[in-house]
Amino acid sequence: MLGRPASRPDYHGDPAIPPKAAPMEKTQVQVIPAHPGFRLVINGDAKEEGLFVGEHVIAWRIETERLEGDRARRSEFITSVEPITSTGDAPGNYGGIMGPDGSIETLNGAYDNLEAAQAHYREHEHF
Hints:
The chain is mainly beta. It has one domain (27-124). The chain contains one helix and eight strands. The chain has one helix spanning 114-124, and strands at 27-33, 39-43, 51-66, 77-85, 88-89, 94-98, 104-106, 109-111. Strands 1, 2, 3, 4, 5, 6, 7 and 8 form an eight-stranded antiparallel β-sheet that branches. β7 and β8 form a beta hairpin. The longest helix is centred in the last third of the chain and has 11 residues, at 114-124. The chain is globular, with a radius of gyration of 22 Å.
């Protein structure tokens, strides 16, 4: 009879059977450095203020949450990515990200430049 090696408590005696993977914690967080040139796009306090370019993004926080129960109907996991600046988390009024090439990405669309994003923002008052 084969015993379990101390280094592999999940070993079941047959090397052809891979060990069971440990279940993922409810939320997993990773932080990765951002490539240079990414910046926040901030929503102004009033429609007339429009948008302005804010701080540089120095890293991205990637959170993956394991869904349970009814929340897991379509997918077992949900992932979000949030920018991190030199002062910490992005402010709540950030509306998008400006890429190194000047393009703008928001939750509602992509724009070639800040002027195009401004036009959409002024027409709809938000992203």
